[in-house]
């Protein structure tokens, strides 16, 4: 399970962390919106997916109704992985 900073009993994940997790899960295999709802509430997920498509990090396949990471999304994940490796205290927050 993905964990973020403690906020009482629930864990807090910021928007950038959620973007990273969504795009990372779409690398190499397309994902349905239902599968991606693991990372966020379904209502917020709609906004996140719209932002990710608008930014060019994901593309939506209208025939299969699935999301897939773009080359720009792959680059985003690669660079974000470098940041996580650089700051060891972040590493446990991003384990899937």
Could you give a short description of this structure?
The chain is α+β, with helices and mostly antiparallel strands. The chain is built from 5 helices and 4 strands; from the N terminus they run E-E-H-H-H-E-E-H-H.
Strand order of the largest sheet: 1-2
**Sheet with the most strands?**
2 strands, antiparallel
Number of helices: 5
Q: How many strands appear in the DSSP assignment?
A: 4
What ranges have pLDDT less than 50 throughout 5 or more consecutive residues?
A: none
Output mean pLDDT. Answer: 85
Helix content bin: 40-55%
Shape: globular
Tell me the β content: 5-15%
**Estimated structural class:** alpha+beta
Rg from Cα: 13 Å
Sketch the topology as an H/E string, one letter per element: EEHHHEEHH
First and last CA, distance: 6 Å
Q: Can you describe this structure?
A:
By secondary structure, the protein is an alpha+beta fold. The chain has 5 helices and 4 strands. The protein has helices spanning 15-25, 33-36, 42-54, 71-86, 88-91; strands spanning 5-7, 10-12, 58-61, 66-69. The strands form 2 sheets. A two-stranded antiparallel ribbon has the order 1-2. It is globular, with a radius of gyration of 13 Å. The termini are close together. 18% of the residues are buried. The model has no long low-confidence stretch (mean pLDDT 85).
Features:
96 residues; two-stranded antiparallel ribbon; 50% helix; alpha+beta; two-stranded antiparallel sheet
What's the structural blueprint in terms of helices and strands?
Layout: E1 5-7, E2 10-12, H1 15-25, H2 33-36, H3 42-54, E3 58-61, E4 66-69, H4 71-86, H5 88-91
Antiparallel strand pairs: 1-2, 3-4
